[in-house]
Amino acid sequence: MLFHNIALIQAVIVACTVGDSYAQSTSTFQWPNAQLSYADLQLYEGDLSIFTDGCPMRGDSSTIPAQWLRLAYHDMSTHSVDDGTGGLDSSIQYELDMPQNIGEGMALSLNDFLSIGIVGPILGLADVMAMGVVFAVVGCGGPIIPYRAGRIDASTAGPGSVPQPQEDLATQTEKFKQMGFNATEMIMLVACGHTLGGVRQVDFPLIVTDVEDAFQNFDTTPQAYDNTIVSQFLQNTTQDVLSIGPNVTTRSDFRIFSSDGNVTMQRYHKK
Ligand code: HEM
């Protein structure tokens, strides 16, 4: 299955964000460990799945899992391989006024995590957001992503380095490279992200110009973590507004998906 493989890349998102703090803690690692025990408790017996089981809608547009996945991706995108800073460190809570972080789902998702009573001195917001990705993907029928706690929450905003739809392919490729992903992984990441949810007209009026359809799903199965986004792209039946939208400048998915002549999309279409 395509997304079992893509899950490995998603696991990279979670894993790469453990970063230096994890490396330092391994030298003093002891078991039992209060933080890891609490993380296990939340993972296996906690309440996060209540939000994600069955990939539920949020209102009449997107789903909670889609919003949680996007939030974590944007938070992770501040990672710099050059200086080892950023990553999934919950800096997104200080970055919501940046143009690249527009979207109702961001604040709603943060509120989910902060209101459920899990975040505290033992398990920080970044660890809970990463756990949210695990539940989001499983809740929509995707694979179980390996999870590990130990992130350190940021206290300030990171750089505004999240790729934006109107940027050219070279700029986006360079930004993913800074996050630690090569051009093939960029294609896989965007495809596996955009298997869920879609684009809101109120937040992106230059992308979704059809006011009759205020929310446009990326594919016809927005509540399933599957490879429909890939198959419909290759079959020229895609409805992804970031691939075929009226504004050519913001056809970011099209540029990325086809950036290697569809080789990666074809490879994962066949799995
Ligand atoms: C060049 C890279 C990317 C661009 C330009 C981009 C752009 C966008 C835009 C404009 C939206 C609409 C948001 C809204 O209306 O609230 C969106 C939604 C979404 N993106 Fe991306 N994205 C990119 C990569 C990714 C990646 C790598 C992931 C995850 C691995 C991801 C996950 C999502 C999800 C799950 C949604 C749906 C959110 C919802 O339905 O509320 N995106 N993206």
Automatic annotation (TrEMBL):
InterPro entries named in the record: Ccp1-like, Haem_peroxidase, Haem_peroxidase_sf, Peroxidase_I
EC number(s) per entry: 1.11.1.-
Pfam families attached to this UniProt entry: peroxidase
GO biological process: cellular response to oxidative stress; hydrogen peroxide catabolic process; response to reactive oxygen species
Domain Plant heme peroxidase family profile span(s) in chain numbering: 63-197
Signal peptide: 1-23
Keyword check for ATP-binding: no
Claim: Iron is one of the keywords in the record: yes
Keywords carried by this UniProt record: Heme, Iron, Metal-binding, Oxidoreductase, Peroxidase, Signal
Entry's Gene Ontology molecular function annotations: heme binding; metal ion binding; peroxidase activity
Family annotation (Gene3D superfamilies): 1.10.520.10, Peroxidase, domain 2 (1.10.420.10)
PROSITE patterns: PEROXIDASE_4
Family per similarity comment: Belongs to the peroxidase family. Cytochrome c peroxidase subfamily.
Function of the molecule: Destroys radicals which are normally produced within the cells and which are toxic to biological systems.
Protein's name according to its UniProt entry: Peroxidase
